[in-house]
Design goal:
It is built from seven helices and 16 strands. The protein is of the alpha/beta class. It starts with a strand and ends with a helix.
Length: 280
């Protein structure tokens, strides 16, 4: 599978301008004959600390998403947007588009509300980790940014036989705390996930400084052995690599973490822990 990541510098709240950036990146990815193109978290609106959700929220059938899907052709495209769900709630969401349709929407489950981040004030948490089938026999799971910092969520994705992990993020220097090394933390986080589960990772970050946030870029593609195949610098760019399905099978044969996961054991222990804490 030929994979591309569009590291773009979004315009805050300007959906029309950001849509044009998406379409330009799509044209470049088509020239590379990419099968999968991944944009950062909330790429259609930009990552806003205090978003005007009444103006920016869209349904999964929004005109902008339909236009991207139509332009994708045979390519699968992962796009971030603010979703207004049919339940009336607002979600930080990532759409998987292709073949003229929205194939799946992942709603961010782990909403950071600490440091400079206040997502819990604006978004409802998602409640699902569900891989989607892609053309060519691949199965992709999406985890948005802080989702990957909840150890249970990458495990659940791998347990459901995902063989590529899409990780759109909006990581800025100092957003958590001045003493917390965000770029260094992501180096550890992504390599650990790829290596532990034999799970290739496609990470897309923002770049540029705006709204008091300094996005450091560093988008990358890792193979199932935890090796970096491509990495962006701090500027807007398109990074590209090829993933091989056979490498996933080899990595999981050599390090059978998921084969030996024993979810029944985990479920039994979890039940005892929740029982002791008086939870339902």
């Amino acid at each position: 599978m030929r994979v591309a990541v569009a590291q773009i510098e979004c315009r805050p709240g300007d959906v029309s301008a950001n849509l044009e950036s998406h379409l330009a990146a799509l044209r470049s990815a088509h020239a590379l004959r990419a099968d999968l193109l991944v944009f950062p978290e909330l790429s259609l609106t930009d990552y806003l600390r205090e978003p005007d959700t009444s103006a920016l929220a869209r349904s999964a059938n929004a005109a902008e998403l339909r236009e991207i899907s139509a332009a994708a052709g045979n390519m699968i495209v992962s796009v971030g947007f603010i979703e207004r769900g049919s339940d009336g709630r607002i979600y930080n969401a990532q759409a998987l588009l292709g073949q003229g349709a929205c194939l799946q929407v992942h709603r961010k489950a782990n909403l950071p509300t600490y440091g400079q981040l206040v997502e819990g004030r604006y978004y409802a948490p998602g409640r699902s980790v569900a891989p989607a089938r892609l053309p060519g026999g691949w199965t992709a799971a999406t985890l948005v940014c802080a989702d990957t910092w909840n150890p249970a969520l990458p495990w659940l994705a791998a347990l459901q036989q995902a063989d590529v992990l899409i990780v759109p993020v909006a990581s800025s220097v100092g957003a958590v705390n001045a003493d917390f090394d965000n770029p260094g933390g992501w180096d550890l986080n992504l390599r650990h996930t790829a290596l532990t589960y034999g799970l290739p990772v496609v990470m897309a970050n923002h770049c540029g400084r705006r709204g008091g946030l300094d996005f450091w870029g560093g988008s990358r593609i890792l193979d199932p052995f935890g090796h970096e195949l491509a990495r962006a610098g701090p500027e807007p760019c398109l990074v590209f690599a090829e993933l091989k399905h056979a490498d996933v099978a080899t990595a999981r044969h050599r390090l059978p973490t998921i084969r030996d996961a024993d979810p029944d054991f985990v479920y039994a222990v979890l039940g005892r822990v929740l029982g002791r804490n008086g939870e339902p």
